[in-house]
Amino acid sequence: MSRKKRIVVIGGSAAGPKAAAKAKRTDYNAEVVMFQKDPDFSMASCGYPYYVGGYFNDRNMLIGTATGVRDSQYFINVKGVDARPSTEVTAIDRDKKEVSFRNLISGKEGEVTYDKVIIATGATPRMPPVPGTDLDGITTLQSMKDADYLRKVRDDNKIKEAVVIGGGLIGIETCEALQRAGIEITVVELLPQLLTFLDWEMAKLVENHVKTQPANVITGNGIAEFLGTNGRLTGIKLQNGTELPCELAVVAVGVSPNVKLAREAGLAIGATGGIEVDKYMQTSDPDIYAVGDCIEIYNRISGKKVLAPLGDLANLQGRVAGENAATENIVTFPGTLQTGICKIFDYAAGSTGLSEAQARQLGYDDIVTTIVASPDKPGFMGGLLLVTKIVAERKSGKILGAQCVGPGNVNRQIAQWAMALMAGHTVEDLINCDLPYAPPFSLAIDHFITAAHVMQNKMKGRMDGISSVELKAKLDGGESPFIVDVRGPDEYKETRLGIGEVLIPNDTLRNRIDELPEDKTREIICYCVTSLRAYESALVIRAEGWKNVRVLEGGIMAWPYSLER
Ligand SMILES: Cc1cc2nc3c(=O)[nH]c(=O)nc-3n(C[C@H](O)[C@H](O)[C@H](O)COP(=O)(O)OP(=O)(O)OC[C@H]3O[C@@H](n4cnc5c(N)ncnc54)[C@H](O)[C@@H]3O)c2cc1C
Q: Which residues pair with 398 in a beta bridge?
């Protein structure tokens, strides 16, 4: 009788268990051994902020199934996988085809031979290289241990002030979690904006929302030092010298792929710092696969290798590696659009594909962008705002990326854009998209399609848009376009941009056309709440002979700067 194939999986959180279970499902006779350094398996790390924030109270829900927790017994009984908790793999000997391990509780060491290995060692949180990182009161939110620590902070209810270092996805989610625990919170971000998967003006909308919660946000200023007394954190000092008192600091400045084992085993590491894999998830050694946060993968739009430490991708890659390790290389993973989403208090922010900044950085210079604001469903059904920015190639109309923020259903918008990107759709392809419609769910023309319509109008020259950033730069540069607010007088009384605008409601425009500048070449910029009425007004003004009429994209709803009122 032939010897059973042995597949060794290293790492037991997201990608590892998925790979192990898939391998066993694919080859019932294979012996699958999974080593996990942590005491728990299959932790829902993406759920940590919600556990800390008190959305649920039972810790086991992070590691649970319908019938209990995913412990080693569960893996043996249900998945047929020999899962070993608190056991670290210390080396991979590729000549002997053997991995060495050490049990972190008993100290017992051992070796196991393999036919195939799947590395799923995840990523390690980065620490800023500043003094004081060893003080008590500084943590990351990367492991169950971190989640337990921060949950205890919530339950003890003693900490009054905290800072979050880093305004990315995890930083922002942690900010919300701690704010919900009644802690006064400040997010400190070195870059000029939060959430760098968004363009600046989209991120600014999120930042404005965070500040209303309230939570403090400091951008463009990094940490210089953690300050402490008697070994305990008392505050932080910023690069501009400002000191912020705090008893807790959560560091969320990104993660680095955990490639120590792979590097020591002589496997190829890519320029991004992640383990190199091909489309089969195979490393430079055909008997070793790698998946999850420890690898680099292709961006499907740019074709460049990227790090994409995301839970959904880790699981998808795990399935591919598990199946391939159990058979031959029969399934592939095509790369990522870097689709992501996060919740920020009452807002969500998501993106897929390239932002404008990323596209330009990659050398796409002939691109067109547009920003569109509208509710996600009719007002009578409680419609909530969505602001979307799309980026497309000017010549082909091919969509390169989309971002969406707001209190509305951002998730569905981004999911739709991700499918459009996967299919390689152009703006034209989306104009008559057949999406589901009923008032509880969407507008008759969904926000997604409206965004495509606005982009089409722009590309066909029917609408000349101007972004908030371009308009602000004009005003700051001393230009004085003729700005028309086309809303009604009551709306104008309530909210105002205060950028030198003139109020001419769009239903009076045809009768008040002589109030526009005599010079028909003068730049005229129209806006309203979302710029829907502004577009109609711009068409009237154009038809009356003015040559340079523009629409403020997304209107007041997408205006990232302060309002006069
Ligand atoms: C707070 C938080 C929120 C997140 N939110 C989202 C989200 O909303 N959406 C999203 O897509 N992604 C999110 N992520 C990212 C997502 O959790 C990760 O992409 C995913 O967990 C990666 O899975 P992985 O298996 O590659 O790595 P990990 O989940 O990090 O697991 C790796 C495991 O390998 C073990 N290990 C390491 N070295 C060894 C060794 N030598 N021997 C044995 N075991 C070892 C580690 O102990 C660890 O348990 C979030 C992450 C965090 C921390």
A: 426
Nearest of 369, 362, 385 to residue 427 by alpha carbon: 369
CA quadruple 347, 352, 358, 360: dihedral, nearest 10: -110
> Is residue 145 pLDDT above 80, yes or no?
yes
User: HSE-up of 414 (CA within 13 Å, CB side)?
Assistant: 25
List of residues 6+ apart from 389 with CB closer than 8 A? 199, 201, 202, 355, 356, 369, 370, 371, 372, 402, 403, 404
pLDDT tier for residue 194 given thresholds of 50, 70 and 90: very high
> Which mutation among 40, 175, 293 tests ligand 1's pocket best, with the greatest number of atoms within 8 A of CB?
293
pLDDT of residue 269: 98
Peptide bond into 214 cis (omega under 30): yes
Q: What is the DSSP-derived secondary structure letter of residue 77?
A: I
Could you tell me whether strands 385-393 and 482-485 are parallel, antiparallel, or unpaired per DSSP bridges?
unpaired
Average pLDDT over every residue of 330-342: 98
The residue whose CA has the least distance to atom 7 of ligand 1 is 46
Gyration radius (Cα) of the chain, Å: 27
Q: Which phi-psi region, left, alpha or beta, contains residue 92 (left: φ > 0; alpha: ψ -120 to 50)?
A: beta
Quote the ligand 1 centre to 403 CA distance (angstroms): 25
- Tokens 């926000």 correspond to what residue? 447
DSSP codes, 543-557: HTT-S-EEEETTGGG
Q: pLDDT for 3-58, tens place per residue? A: 799 999 999 999 999 999 999 999 999 999 999 999 999 999 999 999 999 999 99
* 310 pocket-lining for ligand 1 (C-beta < 6 Å): yes
Length of the chain: 565
Q: Is the CB of 164 under 6 A from ligand 1?
A: no
Distance CA(75)–CA(84), nearest Å, equals 9
Other beta carbons within 10 angstroms of residue 156's beta carbon come to 9
Pocket test residue of 112, 121, 339 for ligand 1, highest count of atoms within 8 A of CB: 121
Q: Inform me whether the pLDDT recorded for 162 exceeds 60.
A: yes
Q: Kindly report the average pLDDT of the chain as a whole number.
A: 97
Between the CA of residue 563 and those of 206, 341, 386, 435, 516, what are the distances in Å? 16, 27, 19, 36, 24
Please state, in angstroms and rounded to a whole number, the distance separating the CA atoms of residues 322 and 310. 18
Report which protein residue has its CA nearest ligand 1's atom 41: 89
Rounded to two decimals, the pTM is 0.96
Positive or negative, the CA dihedral 280, 284, 289, 290 is negative
What is the average pLDDT across 75-103?
97
Please tell me the distance between residue 244's alpha carbon and the centre of ligand 1 in angstroms: 31
* Residue 157: per-residue pLDDT: 96
